[in-house]
Specification:
- This protein is of the alpha+beta class.
- It folds into 3 domains: 155 residues, FAD/NAD(P)-binding domain (3-Layer(bba) Sandwich), CATH 3.50.50; 156 residues, 2-Layer Sandwich (D-Amino Acid Oxidase, Chain A, domain 2), CATH 3.30.9; 99 residues.
- The protein is 32% helix and 22% strand.
- It contains 13 helices and 22 strands.
- The strands form 5 sheets. Strands 1, 2, 9, 10, 11, 12, 19 and 20 form an 8-stranded mixed beta sheet that branches. Strands 13, 15, 16, 17 and 18 form a 5-stranded antiparallel beta sheet that branches. A 4-stranded mixed beta sheet has the order 6-7-5-14.
- A hairpin with a 4-residue loop joins strand 21 and strand 22.
- Helix 1 packs parallel to helix 8 and helix 10 crosses helix 12.
- Bound molecules: flavin-adenine dinucleotide.
- Flavin-adenine dinucleotide binds next to helix 1, strand 18 and helix 8.
- Flavin-adenine dinucleotide (FAD) binds next to helix 1, strand 18 and helix 8.
Length: 486
Amino acid sequence: MIQLDILVIGAGITGTALSRELSRLNATVAVIDRACDVAEGATKANSGIVHAGYDALPGTQKAMYNVRGAQMYPGLCESLGVSYRKCGALVIGFDEADCAALRDLLDRGIQNGVRDLRLLSQKEALALEPSLNPEVLCALSVPESAIVSPYEMAFALADDAAVNGVSFSFDQDVTGISRLEDGTWQVTTSKDVFICKVLVNCAGSSGADLHNMISDQKLHMVHRRGQYYLLDRAAELPFSRTVFQCPSRMGKGVLVSPTVHGNLLLGPTAEDIPDPLDTATTSDGLSEILKKASRTWPALSVRTNITNFSGVRAHLDTDDFIVGPVPFAPGAFEAIGIESPGLSSAPAIAQDLSAMIASYLSLERKSSLRPFPKHPKPFHEMSDEERTVAVSTDPEYGRIVCRCEVVTEAEIRQAIRRPVGARTIDGIKRRTRAGMGRCQGGFCSPRVAQILSEETGTPLLRITKDGGHSYLLADTIGSFLKGGHR
Ligand SMILES: Cc1cc2nc3c(=O)[nH]c(=O)nc-3n(C[C@H](O)[C@H](O)[C@H](O)COP(=O)(O)OP(=O)(O)OC[C@H]3O[C@@H](n4cnc5c(N)ncnc54)[C@H](O)[C@@H]3O)c2cc1C
């Protein structure tokens, strides 16, 4: 039985942002997740846009948290060493109905407090983004829109929380929650039992299920999948901004966007599915993206496609975020229904939840904090002189493991040694980009597995791609020998 002050369920962007805020308080805090790493839910598979906040209906939690969260991103990314680029966005329209919708979006954005929004003519839009469909009639310019790597952000938030005392534990699937007579909460997982004064539900697609375990006010969640194409990095991308089409009831529509790492992203779809863990991609979904994205970009080519993926939005029937105490459940707090713009909103949601919890438990702030362990510059971004210095200081910088993304052995070992370090091939991939390139890990995975095995003492046969039973290697020779050498 593990006793603590605060237990956060879910290590996505909401749970990690919250954990960092809570690490500033004098309290014992743990974050648990059913997956094998940070950012394994919606946080690893989204568009990575820090939305400016023009889309959400004024007065909603989504609008308020989006605008506040987006304003916190530049400072937070700067202090955590996470890439963030204010590339701006265009929302484009093709007919008079679209142009009217864009005027509504402009009004909404102004009401929500978004700065520098402007309607553009066809000529102005094409001058900014010459690869756009020349049939575009009007556009909304959103200079405040930015891009970020969502999982890199979550890793950095978790690292900062961990160096300041928060513990992280994975493969902890919450199966039961009950309130004990003394007012504490008992949380039972597949591995442990936790007793805490405060529990916080940041469980993404399971948020409503966990809420319904402890509240009589039942919630219903719809799982809405979004599929993507990711194209290889290129010296010059056809678009420098994120380009959206007019939003609909189902979401912000199919976008074409650069990523912070210089790839091009096309998607997402919006399909309601029964299983929140179903992150398959389908030929219908991918065809739909091509059809819709080619309206934005008539010269569309997916010849350089390197992977497809999907993420699942946690959409509540009430169509808004729920952030705060769980009604009639003292000591239980929640952030649920955190679909888009949840990535953009997470820093502000975390700030408010942390203040509510500090007030509930009468917690003081710590008098001092340990500094965030900033990561060295990635090898592929170093100048020749910087590379020479790096290799002479640590010869493992001289061994390139991932040729596509130019990632060295030194960086892979550092990723494993981070405060919340990588334990899987995908964990290395998301922290270092080894395996993110054109060959998608075809060449480097065996070497990455070997380094993981050396660093963690895990037998090579037990190293997984992404937790569970996703073993990279099978002991066919051992099994063959055990079965008798005939
Ligand atoms: C296709 C798509 C595109 C999007 N695009 C954007 C965008 O461009 N900009 C933006 O701002 N937002 C975007 N979003 C929304 C954003 O991704 C989410 O709002 C955000 O990632 C939610 O973070 P979270 O931490 O609340 O949930 P998650 O990241 O889903 O994390 C929840 C965690 O809880 C864990 N968990 C679940 N059940 C249990 C259990 N029983 N026991 C223990 N742990 C459990 C899961 O393993 C998971 O790690 C998009 C979402 C999708 C799906």
